[in-house]
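My main concern about presentation is that the manuscript never shows what a single data entry looks like. In essence, backbone conformation is discretised, so a fold becomes a row of integers matching the chain in length. An entry of this sort, consisting of the sequence and the corresponding backbone structure tokens, reads as follows:
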Amino acid sequence: MLCLRTHLLRATRRQSQIPSFLFPPRFTMATSTHNPAKKLKMDVDAPLIGTHSGHFHADEALAVSMLRLLPTYNSSPLVRTRDADVLATCHTVVDVGAVYDDAQKRYDHHQREFTTTFPGHSTKLSSAGLVYMHFGRDIISTVTGLAPGSDLDLLYEKIYTDFIEAFDANDNGVSAVAPKDLTAAGLAKKFEDRGFSIASVVNRYNYSSSKGADFGKSKEELQVEEDARFAKASTFVGEQFVLELTDRANHWLPARNEVKKAFEARLQYDHQGRILVLQEGMPWADHLYNLEKEAPAQDGVAPQVLYVLFPESTPEGKWRIRAVSKENGGFENRKDLPDAWKGVRDAQLDEVSGIPGCVFVHAAGFIGGNQNFEGALAMAQKALEI
């Protein structure tokens, strides 16, 4: 049985072989220096994170990278092992150990009796979801600077729904749509998408880059390379998480109030409120769908917005008209722009539509443009009646 010091020494040697450019500041792994013993002591003083060795998945890769966003774990070394005695010395353990106990900082989900879900959701958590559920608010505050409150809570829920839950579902074998339901509906995939997910990217890191690369290497050498691949995978997933979080914090969250104002003013452009006008481009779809759900029923007011108008750059420049999708992120629209306009441009579109200043309408009918706001509004108003 290997003692903790041996595992840490090996971990330090493994990490020293990983190029530093692979790890942006928040994802830097402990590395050796000209004085490894001194560096090791510093690393041991930081909370030791443990996870399992062997084939790795997206959930523990994300769990480790999320922890390292917090000041507490920023310089924490990582031990990858299935040795229970070594894991017992770790401050925090994810995805191994058959224990879920936040007080003990144990976050495994493989035990038979485990049924924990994120509040308001039905998907059983993975190690990623467990870490996010307990540390997510602190992570959001650390990365974005948001203080506790309604905005942070809104972002906390949004990031779980749009990003983390898919990791939980993937690791627990849950499909977005049950295969039996697809079969019953007589539906089949139009193309294969198994290689298109973050989970599939992480899985690729499990394998050596060239045929026969592992032949003749010692067990320790193979473990060094496996740990290096895990570090790369964890860095990759962590970067995706931070990009998602900062984009939502910097763009999605501030847009909420602007979309709400536009939603409340929509009747001035169409007596049924089917046109939404934004004074600048912004992520509007999530907020629109939520506002529609929250809006009280009104006589003569349509339950849904059909077209959204927004400027390409400034309100004085060109404007876009966008058909609203039936569902968030879907490709089927509530009402396409008119068939006769699809794929037509410039003067020809002016003639077909009877509206001056047209720029284009996409062949799929989901978006178009005009030289100014008045023209885009006229396009939207006419499209409603066709």
